[in-house]
Every structure is written in C-alpha cells, then in structure tokens.
TrEMBL record:
InterPro entries: Glyco_trans_2-like, Glycosyltransferase_2, Nucleotide-diphossugar_trans. This is GT2 family glycosyltransferase. The chain crosses the membrane at residues 234-260, 266-294. Coiled coil: none annotated. It comes from the Bacteria. It is a multi-pass membrane protein. Keywords: Glycosyltransferase, Membrane, Transferase, Transmembrane, Transmembrane helix. GO terms for cellular component: plasma membrane. Its main location: membrane. Residues 8-171 form the Glycosyltransferase 2-like domain.
Length: 332
C-alpha cells in the first residue's frame, strides 16, 4: 500500500559543493527507517551559490526521484533560503536542517516520533560547542539574554533552525509576510505545542562556514528589531546616562576651574565637550529609530523575500516569491 502521509525535508545550501554528496548519503540513510510509512520529499534550496552547488543538486535530483530543488537568483541569505524551501514543501510535516552535516540527519526519526505524539513544533536544542570561539559563544548568550529580557517570546538560547513543523504550524508560519525574517522567533510566536530534542553539533566534513561576523550581526538585528523594542529602550537609557555623565563632568570641571587663571576658557571647553557628548547620545537614538524606519520602508515596498531562478518543485505559498523558470518535476 502506498504511503498516504508525506514528510518533506528542506535543506538550504550555499557554496556547499564539497559536502552535499556526503550530506545526501547521510540523509538517505537516516530516512530509510521512515520509507515504508511515509512518502518522502527532499527539497534542496540553492541560495545563489557561485560554485558547483546547483550542478551537484541537479545530479542528486537526477539520481534520486525523491529530490526536488529550487535555485534563487542570488544570495538572499539563510532565512530567505529556508523560507523558499518551506514555501515549496508539500509534506504533512516538514523538517528543515542545514546541509553542512552540523545538524545530524540521524535525528530526523526522533523528530517525527515527537510530532506523531501530538506536537506541532519540534525544536532541536544545540549543546554547547567548545569548537566555537569564545566571542561567538559569548555574543550568542548575550543576544538571547537581551531578547528574553525585552520580549515575551520564549526563544530557547540554544535553539537552531533544525526543526520539524506540522502542516498546520507551517501554514501559520507562511502567513507571516515579514521582509526581515527571524524564523526562530516567528515559530515561537505562533504559539503551537512545542517539544524539544537535544543534539550535539557535528564537525564539518568539508567546506567552510559561511556565517561571517557581518551575517551574525544582521541575524541578531533581525531578531531584536522584529520582536523587541529593546534597541529603542537601550538607546534612550544610553542617552540619559550619557547626558547625566556629561553634566556631572561639566559641573566637576567647572568647580575645579575656579582656581585656574583662565577659568572662562576652561568653561568653554567643558561646555563644548558636554555638548558633543549629548549630541552623540542623540545621534545614537536617532540611528536606532532610523533602523526601524528603514525596515518599515522595506516592508511596505512589498518586494518578495526571494526570487527564483530555477525550480523543479511546485510552490505551495506564492505570496513571498517571484516565479522561476520551471523544469519538469518527476513524480516521487
């Protein structure tokens, strides 16, 4: 009897030509126990790679009838690539994981079991990875502490984008039209029943990490600005602190300058310094407000989250994408 329940696996990839064959072999082995019960769909997303990633994915699709793929016109970023995959996933449940093998495919049957137990969202919680730099571990902890302090979202500090969503949860997620997408927060905002599965990240088998400091900062800003007024509150607090410090320094120097011969010049210099300090605090607050204004401007323009270049998958949610040149998709 043919399986009536479909399980989709969404795998974004950017410049991963070396690791993709290894990843696909590990994924196929992990899905083998589920093959008798589920119709399986493997959906790769090429995020505008400039190497042979798309060529390798085409080869996987030619060799494995379960494979579909979409290719974006340029590099739109990890969260946009994930969104593209989720838009095209047709499964009753959808698992997303990175294709660099740091998210272990062997954990997928466990996620499916938690879903079958009645959970609409199954998160994976990353164990502390001592191979990461102290800066990355420290900045990550600081970011989640700020997010927890200034928002009502219960975003786990070690949650990853390796997760399972039921079709109900996924349909709810795809109704959210944010241009700047922080999927971890968006999934938590939905409010569905959540289960958690811990995992230890694996070492990369090939290739290098594409998560640069710039991408980390952009990701953190998307999380803070999309779900928290923390930057505005911090800017206001910093402005008040700077103003108070400026007045304190000005008063102290003014009192000390009374004993100087040229006290008027000292007072002028203190006033200028205080004015510059207050202006710096004001510019900080204006900059934060400007960042919110820019994001509102980008949102109201209504541009798609991504643009497709090529696809063998049928889009399930056309609202967030521009169409692609479509190749004929083979039946699974």
């Amino acid at each position: 009897m043919a399986a009536t329940t479909t399980l989709s696996i969404v795998c974004p990839a950017y410049q991963e030509e070396d690791v993709l064959p290894l990843f696909h072999a590990a994924l196929a082995a992990a899905l083998e126990p589920l093959a008798a019960e589920y119709a399986l769909e493997i959906l790769y997303v090429d995020d505008g790679s400039r190497d042979r990633t798309l060529e390798v994915i085409r080869g996987l699709a030619a060799a494995d009838p379960r494979v579909r793929y979409v290719s974006l016109s340029r590099n739109f970023g990890h969260q946009a690539a994930l969104t593209a995959g989720l838009d095209h996933a047709s499964g009753d449940a959808v698992v997303s994981l990175d294709s660099d093998l740091q998210h272990p495919p062997a954990l997928i049957p466990t996620l499916v079991a938690r879903w079958r137990a009645g959970n609409d969202v199954v998160l994976t919680i990353r164990a502390d990875d001592v191979r990461l730099s102290w800066f990355k571990r420290f900045s990550s902890r600081l970011f989640y502490k700020i997010l927890a302090r200034f928002t009502d979202l219960d975003v786990r500090p070690s949650a990853s984008d390796f997760r399972l969503l039921s079709r109900t949860a996924l349909d709810g997620l795809l109704r959210l039209p944010e241009a700047h997408r922080y999927l971890r927060g968006m999934v938590q905002w939905l409010g569905f029943r959540v289960a958690e599965v811990p995992f230890s990240p694996e070492a990369r088998r090939a290739g290098t990490s594409k998560y640069t400091l710039r991408r980390m900062v952009r990701f953190a800003l998307d999380g803070l600005l999309s779900f928290s007024p923390a930057p505005v509150r911090l800017a206001v607090g910093a402005g008040l602190a700077v103003t108070a410090l400026s007045w304190a320094v000005t008063s102290a120097v003014a009192l000390a300058s009374l004993s100087f011969a040229d006290s008027h010049l000292a007072l002028v210099l203190v006033a200028l310094t205080g004015g510059h300090t207050v202006a710096a605090g004001a510019l900080l607050a204006i900059g934060v407000l400007g960042e919110y204004a820019v994001r509102i401007y980008e949102q109201v323009k209504g541009r798609p989250v991504y643009v497709l270049k090529e696809s063998t998958a049928v889009v399930q949610n056309p609202a967030l994408a521009l169409p692609a040149r479509t190749r004929t998709a083979r039946a699974a």
